[in-house]
Amino acid sequence: MNLNNHNPIDPSYAARKTIYDGSYQPKWKSSVNHDPERDDKKIATKEGGLPDRSSAPHKSTSMTAIGASLRPKQVQLVNEVRRAFATGAKRPCVMAATGFGKSVVAGYIIRSALDKGAKRVVLIVDSLTLINQLLATFRGMFNLECGVIQGFNEQFDLTKPVQIATPQTLARRFEDERVGRMYQDYKPELVIVDECHIQYQGTRDAIEHWGCKVVGFTATPYARGMGELYDRLVKAVPMSKLIEDGDLAPYRAFSHATPDFSGYKVGANGDIQGAENAYD
C-alpha cells in the first residue's frame, strides 16, 4: 500500500464523544494474529534495526535545539518529565499554565526522543487551528519532519517520523476495515497528547493498543477518569510565579457578578454543566 497517497474517508463517520464515567472498553478489537515481537522484526527489516524501547532518561544536558533555546523553567519541566520516566512512570501528565510554552516543551521532548533512536512519535491535538502552529514550531525550531493525520489534509505522509493527528481522524482510521490494521500496527515509541483532560475515545483506544510511553499536557488536569490513563502528575511552576518573574504579563479580572456554582455538576471534560445559569 502506498502510504503517501492513502487518505480514506467514511461518509457515515460521526465525531467521537469524550470518555464517559464508567469502566473503559475499547471500541475496536485488534487482530487475533497481532504479535508485537513479530511486528518489531518487520519494522527492523524495513528500517535497519529494532526500535529502541529503553526507558532510561535522555543523557544529554543540552537544552538547545536548532533555532530553539529553552527557558530555565522549561528546562526544569523537561527534567521533571525525564525523572518521572526514570522512576517508573509510563504515562506522566504535565500540568502547565497557559502561556508556559507547552508546545516548545513538547517539541523538545519529541526532538530528544528521535535523537535517542525513536522511529515514530505521534502528537494528538484536538484543535485544527493548532496544527499549522505546531507544524511551524516543530519545523522551524526543532527541524522535525512531520506528517498530518487529519481528514483530507494535504500534508498526510505516514513515512515522516512525527505525526500530528486529530483524535477524530485517528479513531476513524483505526476502525476502517481497509486500513485499520496498518494504523494499529504503526507502533510509535512515544505519544504526546495536547489538552489531555479532554479524553477522546479514539485517543484512549490508540494509547491502550500501542502500549507505548505517553506524555499528556494540560493546564487543568481535573477531569474525572484521568487517573485511569495517566500514572504521574508533573507540575510546572504556577502562573503566579510566571507573572512574578516577568514571563507572563500581569492581568486584571473583571466580572459583572459573583457566580454561585453550588449544586452544579462537573462534566467528564472538567466543565461545569449549566454554568451559564449561575449568573442569574
Helix content: 25-40%
User: Helical stretch count?
Assistant: 9
Strand order of the largest sheet: 5-6-4-7-8-3-9
Q: Shape, please?
A: globular
What fraction of residues sit in β-strands? 5-15%
Q: How many strand units?
A: 9
Q: Output the helix-strand order.
A: HEEHEHEHEEHHEHEHEH
- C-alpha end-to-end distance: 58 Å
Largest sheet: 7 strands, parallel
Class of secondary structure makeup: alpha/beta
Mean pLDDT: 78
Low-confidence stretches: 1-62
Radius of gyration over all CA atoms, rounded: 20 Å
Structural description of this entry:
The chain is α/β, with parallel strands linked by helices and 280 residues long. Helix content is 32%, strand content 12%. It has nine helices and nine strands. It has a seven-stranded parallel β-sheet. It has a two-stranded antiparallel ribbon with strand order 1-2. Helix 2 packs across helix 3 (102-116), helix 3 packs across helix 4 (128-142) and helix 5 packs across helix 7. The relative contact order is 0.18.
SSE map:
Blueprint: H1 36-47, E1 64-65, E2 68-69, H2 72-86, E3 92-95, H3 102-116, E4 121-124, H4 128-142, E5 146-149, E6 162-165, H5 167-175, H6 180-184, E7 190-194, H7 201-210, E8 213-218, H8 226-229, E9 232-235, H9 239-244
Parallel strand pairs: 3-8, 3-9, 4-6, 4-7, 5-6, 7-8
Antiparallel strand pairs: 1-2
Helix pairs in contact: 2-3, 3-4, 5-7
